[in-house]
Write a structure and sequence with these properties.
The chain is an alpha+beta fold and 145 residues long. The chain has a single domain (3-123), classed as Gcn5-related N-acetyltransferase (GNAT) (Aminopeptidase, 3-Layer(aba) Sandwich), CATH 3.40.630. The protein has helices at residues 13-22, 34-43, 86-100, 115-123, and strands at 3-7, 49-53, 56-65, 70-77, 106-108. It has a 5-stranded mixed beta sheet with strand order 1-2-3-4-5, with helices on both faces. Strand 2 and strand 3 (56-65) form a beta hairpin. The chain binds coenzyme A (COA). Coenzyme A binds at residues 23-26, 75-77, 82-88, 108, 110, 114, 116-117, 119-120, 123.
Length: 145
Amino acid sequence: MNIVIQELTIEDYEAVRSLWHKSEGIEVADTDSREGLVRFLERNPGLSFVARDGKEIVGVVLCGQDGRRGYIDQLAVSRSYRRQGIGRSLVSRCVYNLMRIGIRKWHLFVFEDNQEAIAFWDNLGWARRVELITMSRDVDNSGII
Ligand SMILES: CC(C)(COP(=O)(O)OP(=O)(O)OC[C@H]1O[C@@H](n2cnc3c(N)ncnc32)[C@H](O)[C@@H]1OP(=O)(O)O)[C@@H](O)C(=O)NCCC(=O)NCCS
């Protein structure tokens, strides 16, 4: 097995979306449209990656930053490729590139019932922020904010 980590480009969209759909613990939302990914990659160049085995995409991670903090999202590794260090390699590439641009604090969301992912993040040394809750809002159908 010869896994290569490469920058994610929009040409990878269909394969990446298919991997997300197959991955438990990943929600594919409206924001994960092709247009959404184009915008995300334009705003956050050089921070998101795929893992390839030959031509096949076997891992993906999105990473963005807002000038102060980095955000890791939609990390997934194909089931048959797990526990071989691919998830760790993808995250390492993200945090290395965030550090290069001076972003030294990083956040992510994980569903609380996703025990495998929590074990993964624990192993990588990420801390649970039990004192925080997540609050979200969408524009409703009337367009009123
Ligand atoms: C979470 C995920 C990305 C991990 O990818 P991976 O390539 O298997 O992870 P790695 O091989 O780099 O694991 C690194 C370490 O994390 C820990 N770890 C990873 N998966 C684990 C699991 N299922 N249970 C317990 N510990 C785990 C281990 O300590 C592992 O090191 P080891 O194999 O030497 O013991 C993968 O399981 C996945 O795609 N899950 C479905 C999607 C998902 O939940 N994504 C995360 C959303 S926040």
